[in-house]
Each structure stands twice: as structure tokens, then as C-alpha cells.
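I am writing to request your help with a piece of structural work I have in hand. Here, with my thanks, is the record as I have it:
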Amino acid sequence: MMLTKENIQELKNIVAEENCYADKAHRLAYSYDATRNTLEPEIVVFPRDEKDVVQVLKYCNAKKINIVPRGAGSGFTGGALPARGGVVLAFEKHMNKILEIDEKNLVARVQPGVVNMDFQKEVEQVGLFYPPDPASQDYSTLGGNVSENAGGMRAAKYGITKDYVMALRAILPNGDLIRAGKKTIKDVAGYNIAGILTASEGTLAVITEITLKLIPKPKMSATAFGVFPSVHAAMNATYKTFAAGVTPVAMEFLDNLTIRAVEATFKKGLPTEAGAILITDVDGNLQEEIDFQLKELERVFKENGASEFKKATTQEESNEIWFARRNASPSLKTYGPTKLNEDITVPRAKLPQLLEKIEAIGKKYDHQIPCFGHTGDGNVHVNVMTNKNDSSKYLKAEKAIVDIFAAAVELEGTLSGEHGIGLSKAPYMEMAFTKQEMDLFRALKKTFDPNNILNPYKMGI
């Protein structure tokens, strides 16, 4: 429904006028995310506390007004875009506090608007560690991370956001408060509602407080990289590294197209004839642990064709090694003005087949498809380089994306490892899920949100 002046005034009465904006500037500022698409809300509301969230949801549910919870708007699939106007409920202004760091129980309680990197720095000051590190960690919020089940480079060893969510406080669309999960290590009473809300993209409830698991911070780390003759050889080295008893903190790869793009852009002296580069970090509490892991990495890399293996001896050398990976995405503009970026994931051992299929798809549609990403957890960033102003070329690129999704599903993979589904991948959900599974998702949505006011039209449900 279109908001009336009365609706706007009622929302202002709930959160105070200085926390409620229907002007054009605010509507534009909250109309975008990293997809660069824009969909305007009718009003932006900044709740001061959990009580405000309860009252806003009660009012909007009664009036059947759509609500989109929003963190930093850094998502890549349109998850925070208001598909049908309504209210954007933004948490960065007030609900952005670290409520507790419990050093005895190794947990923390935070509000959804806390920025990931700010939280990491706070817990590290007391010798603890929060591993999930999405590329957007400098600005993305923990509420958004939970809603999208964000990952990152350290997922290879430490897992992703869901592995650290112990409990949530959340408000249902009708305004009811629920507590999901516990602070305890063990909890097998009742359904895993915290697990259901994690990765639900704000479609089931509005998260108002998060209890996160922490771990002791490792005392030391090391960086190394290997140069391989082919992507196939590098992918084989990836899963054989884990089989050898080494679990890297991060294991990232760049294919030849990406290597050449980074070198053309930044002139770092990268081996442009290499088929692929693997970059890895290991950590531990004893030098012997580090030495063992580096020795095994070198052995496995060389057994799988690596022509070069280099260990960083200083932090500066480590930063230099990681430079290529951190700057891979912006360098790809050398191949075209438009990038269709997807983040498919397959089991690690099937990475060689996946990359072979992607290469064949590139040839089929006459498009360059540079790839890089998190080989340690099977998550590949696929970039179909095209030109949105060339309709024929762009149509081929879109067909290539469909084939890439099909390849991932065929290899027992998934449509997304960390970006989520949102609006942009919603049309492809039925490629990955059966009718019965999609019906179950829709039934779950209806149970939580019978009036379909929370972030509607997302995830294909």
C-alpha cells in the first residue's frame, strides 16, 4: 500500500520525528545496495531500541505496510532493497552497541547495527577472536551478516556466521518478541529457530540482539603462495592440502585471466603465464605448528605441479602477496565495462570440474569469465565480463550465468556461498530446490509472516 500522511505521522509518533524521514534525500540514500540497482522506500525509520521495533512492527502489520530491515546496504543481491516501497527500518543510527563481551564464557552480545570490523577490534583487545570476515567487514553490520549468513576468507578454517550465532532476540511481524537459542554451549531443547533466522534475509523476523561465540585469538600466523601451470592443478592442490592434515585459515585462488588483469592494472610483477595462483594463510599457537603447515603446503603444492612456492618473511611481504587477491575484483574492468558477478559454491573436491565447466561456458558464449575466490571452502567468484549497452552480448552473458548455476547444482553445489539470494537470484531458486522444498520455504514464511510484510518478494518465496 502507499503510505498516507496519517501513516507517516503515526510512525513519527512511535520513534520521534527526528528518527523518521520521508524526504527525497533519505529515500534516495536508502534505495540502493551493492547491486547498484535502486528501489525507493516511502519512509526511513531509525528505531531507538527494541521497544520501538515492536511498536513499528505492530503498526505496520495492522496496516499491512511492507518493512525492509537494513544494515549497511552492502549486499550484492538486493536483499536490503524495498521491492514494493514501504518502510526501511535502519539500525546504524541507534541500535549499534556492543552490549557485553563475556570473557569467562567466550561470548558477546551485540545489537544489529554494530559494524563487523569494530566488533573484531573490540574482542581482540581482550585476546579473543571473532573469525567471520566478509569482504565488506569495514562497514557491513552484524545484523546484516546474520541475515545473509556472511562468510569471508577465513571460512576455510573457521566457518561462517552461522557457526558463531548462539542466540538471537527477534521481533515477529505482529510485534511479538522471541528468544531463539541460548548462551550455553549445549542446547537441544526445541527447534533451532536461531538457525532458521540466520540467512533468512530479513523475511521472517527483525533481529534486535545477537549472542555470538568467540574463540581465543591464535598467537601467530604465516602467509605463502604457489604458482601453478593450470587451474586444474591448483584446485587439486586445494583439496589435497586438507587431506594432508593442514587446514589453512584462508586459501584463495586467482585464475590466469584474473592474474593478467591485476598485473595490467597494478604492475606487481605477477606471473602472467601461470594458470593459477594459490594464496594461503595458516595460524597456530606454536612455531612448530606453523612450520609443519608450511612444510606440508610446499610438499602438496609441488606434488601438484607448482613451479614456485614462496613464504612471506615479514608483514610487508604478506601484504604484498595478498594485494593481488584483494584487488582482483576492481582490476577486471580491463575485460569489459559490465561485470555479472556470482558466488557459486561446490564441494572442494569438485572444484576442478567446476572450473573446467566454466571455461567451456565462456567459449560457448564467447565471453571472458575470470574467476577467483575461496578455494578453501569451494566458493568461487565467477565474473562474466560483458557490456550492458550491447543487448546481444548482454543476453549471452545472462545465458552464461544460467549455465553456470546449472553447473554448480549438477556438481552438488549451491547458488550462493555468501552473497545470498535476495532479488537478483530469486528467479533461479527452482533450479536448486524441488517444488516440495520451495513449498516448505513458503509455508515457513507464511507461519512467521502471514501478512507478507517483512522484506517481501525476496528469495523466490
Observations:
- Residues 98-216 form a domain with the Uridine Diphospho-n-acetylenolpyruvylglucosamine Reductase; domain 3 fold (CATH 3.30.465.10).
- Residues 361 and 403 are 7 Å apart (CA to CA).
